[in-house]
């Protein structure tokens, strides 16, 4: 039944509606259980997947309770495009596959499987499963190719295809797809696992139809969307009308001079609706950090949903929340611009900008910027005993810190805002699967952005290559320069990036984006994730709270003094015995308060000269002086520093009490 058709004359009583709505949620969550128990890929096993129930027009009726945020705003677009593509040729027993990012999707690793559901010969719904496949072909293992100038150099782009046609498995089509991907057996296994999940959902939905009647279930579809729309409108209606605007940044466009790439977000509340205008964003960049329309819209929805946790998510919300995403910008890159790294690029910038906007409207739910999503990928031939030179693909992401909040510190070492349900991968499982040994995995001291309520702490993870041949690594992240920022006077976290230490003794800072770097047995790598940005003036943080952070090794004694103005004397660190020098703390805080505005205006060249002599360290540059370097060469980035200082002026200095 389409949105424009008249409603059935069946009025659902509240009990039946709640039973069916809960049944829809259970149906989708059962899909998740099926995938997690039968998938082949370690990536999907760690919950990089989502499922949904769509109506016959492709509108989302229900999503899973632990779905990945980046998928939530896109599954309905994919479904609508597929239904349109096969219009007139949609049959019982069909199953479709698509990963096309330009048809409302995200990136080519997110592969969607859809099954139309029929009752008495009529299409009544579509069950859909989306999984992040660890490889979909292309020149780089994991399909993250920073050198791609277009999607042809990223991997296999799949338009809507039938892989089951009226119940018959099209093995030829499936083989064409999976044989163009690394670890093709795993890819085939994931395809079947997702397809089976959609079958189980179909089965469960038809059970509901038999029990309650098709008209009652179809009415519940419509009521579920209306329910979400009504809840959202009621909450928006209670808020003040107005327009708010902010920016977040991607580190740089490799095809241009240094300087941030702006993601500009303007939010308008008008009555019971919210509209976002991202037309002030810069044009798409010369690497794969661009977002498609679907990805950016998903960022809009996920960022908004974070501030309305009690409102369920389906297409009813899309009647209330809208967005302008002009084509040709970094938030709506056109075909064939590469977009595989979008979730670490434009997507999370949209989300964090929206966090800041809603923090002004709903200050009791305010949150500073969260750490940046990152992926480290390795692939090659496994030379360990008994592995028979088999191919391997190691695909890793890390936890990190979320931003400080109004009245509360940020969450430590948690999943990225990209997907709060994403699991931290088992190190033991990874080590069985690939010739890499995890050498460290720990909280990073001083990674949290200082604030009255500090950000959550980031994590450092290191690894060593074991016996391997013809192996390479790639990395996708951001915020080496647009460092995770604070709000309401809070300060930034730490830069992202990978350091590669060769077995030969050579060491190199690799930055946040690279592909197909050769790596050999004995080579080591380490990368930290940032903590979240701080909330509020660090000089207003309770000194006793800073002391507790020192005891927990979240903050060092040195940075307790430099960032918080709290002077702490070690008595017996082995038993966590320290003492606050109250008098020295009062003097230090007065000194910082009187000088910190001037520090942000010092000549950057003079600051860098002091850094090179060792007088200042990297965090001094970032948090006190607002100076950004190319961290691999220590070259001053003049335009980037100017923009970073402007950001600190707006988010930090303007909020400080002088």
UniProtKB/TrEMBL annotation:
Q: Where is the Hydantoinase B/oxoprolinase domain?
A: 13-538
Tree of life domain: Archaea
Indicate the transmembrane segments per the record. Answer: none
Q: Which protein, by its recorded name, is this? A: Hydantoinase B/oxoprolinase family protein
User: Which organism is this entry from?
Assistant: Halomarina halobia
